[in-house]
Amino acid sequence: MTQYLLSVYQPDGPIPEPDALAAIEADVNAVDQDMRAAGVWVFSNGLLPAASATVLRPSGQDVLVTDGPFAEGKEHLGGFTIVDVPDLDAALDWGKRLALATTLPIEVRPFAG
């Protein structure tokens, strides 16, 4: 079994309207429950907006601390799920289900080692 990170990328800006958000949350919870039932779920969580980030950047023997996201962009990492599956195809299948549930792009990446 290999662990994969399923990263959820969401656009900066306002969140969906309450009715749309409730439907998305229900769909995501259903996929989450299916992952747990299949025994592939390791961990998942959403993140606060990118503006809540703090960046630590090495500078010689010191570390510069700055507010805000590491990179300015129109999308940011909004959440993630870690699955433990036999291969990339299985990870992609779960990633596709998560993409449909979230209505957002999902990046699937294996862990090193």
Structural topology:
Elements: E1 2-11, H1 18-38, E2 41-46, E3 54-59, E4 62-67, E5 75-85, H2 88-102, E6 106-110
Antiparallel strand pairs: 1-5, 1-6, 2-5, 3-4
Describe the structure.
The protein has helices at residues 18-38, 88-102; strands at 2-11, 41-46, 54-59, 62-67, 75-85, 106-110. Strands 2-5-1-6 form a four-stranded antiparallel sheet, with helices on one face. A two-stranded antiparallel ribbon has the order 3-4. It is an alpha+beta fold. The chain is flat and about 45 Å long. Helix 1 (18-38) packs antiparallel against helix 2 (88-102). The model has no long low-confidence stretch (mean pLDDT 94). Helices cover 32% and strands 39% of the residues.
Q: Percent range for helical residues?
A: 25-40%
Please describe the biggest sheet, giving its number of strands, its sense, and whether it closes into a barrel.
4 strands, antiparallel
Following the backbone from N to C, one meets helices and strands in this order, namely: EHEEEEHE
Uncertain regions: pLDDT < 50 for 5+ in a row?
Answer: none
Structural class: alpha+beta
- General form: flat
Give a nutshell description of this structure.
32% of the residues lie in helices and 39% in strands. With 113 residues, the chain is an alpha+beta fold.
List keywords for this structure.
113 residues; alpha+beta; 4-stranded antiparallel β-sheet; 2 helices; 32% helix
